[in-house]
Specification:
This is Alpha/beta hydrolase family protein. The chain is an alpha/beta fold. It has 5 helices and 6 strands. Helix 2 crosses helix 3.
């Protein structure tokens, strides 16, 4: 299984579970040209290049935040057969709480994903309501796992290595 780490806006820094997984598990990070003011078409293109280079069918994508939207947009534009995706803390790019500076990430993609996926949401994420997280998971055909009041499931919310996330990843 080839695991591709797909960070969201700002990249995932030191101490973030995605960074820890990359460093300790040998997973590969999808690199973007612009982490602060991303353009959807660019992020989707970089993701597609990484998936093709990894060998597609045995790939599992691990997205956080804006990366979940990127993965759904990528799946609509490039319906490649992959093993699956773990979609953690999907941000609602249409919400008033979403940061400015991104281009092309609205409206939120609501296409069914052509691969197995698990969406992980919190009950108190500043960037998505529980209702919208459920709407995204239902539209994408994702199994939804709600982990309670866990903020944005990042370093600021107290998430380091996050072994429970690895359990979910192994289900894919």
């Amino acid at each position: 299984m080839n695991v591709l780490i797909v960070p969201g806006l700002g990249n995932s820094g030191e101490g973030h579970w995605q960074t820890i997984w990359e460093q300790t598990r040998g997973f590969e990070r999808v690199q973007q040209n612009d982490w602060e003011t991303p353009v959807r078409e660019d992020w989707v293109a970089r993701l597609d290049e990484a998936v093709v280079a990894a060998g597609t069918e045995d790939v599992v994508l691990v997205g956080h935040s804006l990366a979940c939207c990127t993965i759904a947009n990528w799946a609509a534009a490039h319906p490649r057969k992959i093993r699956g995706a773990l979609l953690v803390a999907p941000s609602d790019t249409e919400a008033d709480s979403y940061p400015t500076g991104t281009k092309g990430f609205t409206p939120m993609p609501l296409n069914r994903l052509p691969f197995r996926s698990i969406a992980v949401a919190s009950t108190n994420d500043f960037y998505v309501t529980p209702e919208r997280a459920r709407q995204f998971a239902d539209a994408w055909g994702s199994e939804l796992v709600v982990i309670g009041p866990a903020g944005h499931i990042n370093v600021a919310s107290g998430f380091g290595e996050w072994p429970e996330g690895l359990v979910l990843l192994n289900q894919l």
